[in-house]
Amino acid sequence: MGVLAWVMMGIALWHFMVFLPDRCWAGIIGGFLGCLFGSLLFGLAIHGFSVPGRADTDFMTAMEGVPGAAIGFAFVYWIGVRQENAAAAREAEDEQELPAT
Predict the structure, then answer these.
(1) Rounded Cα–Cα distance for residues 69 and 90 (Å)
(2) Would you call 52 helix, strand, or coil by DSSP?
């Protein structure tokens, strides 16, 4: 049940990413995957890579997915910004190499 709580929290936080510019790696799907896997991995890491059972799942179990979703989204956002800046630098470089007519 802990995995369900973490994943649902990651999906819930992903919906708020609509307020940020879409500069994620692989677009909106990359943001979704970043939130999803970030919340899952962070929750697992907190619990020593074991999953809390149904009796051990409470509100705080779901809240453990929040930092992971933020970290996962920040990671895919950082990759996307890096790729965008590299593409812009290549375009600028190509424009400088073109002979003036």
Answers:
(1) 32
(2) coil
Domain ranges of the chain: 2-90
Q: CA–CA separation, 35 vs 8, rounded Å?
A: 10
Tens-place pLDDT, residues 35-93: 999 999 999 999 999 999 999 899 999 999 999 999 999 999 999 999 999 999 998 88
Q: Which amino acid belongs to residue 50? A: S
Scanning the structure block, which residue is given the tokens 């630098």? 89
Q: What is the pTM of this model?
A: 0.83
Question: d(Cα 28, Cα 3) in Å, to the nearest integer?
Answer: 22
Q: What is the CA radius of gyration of the chain?
A: 19
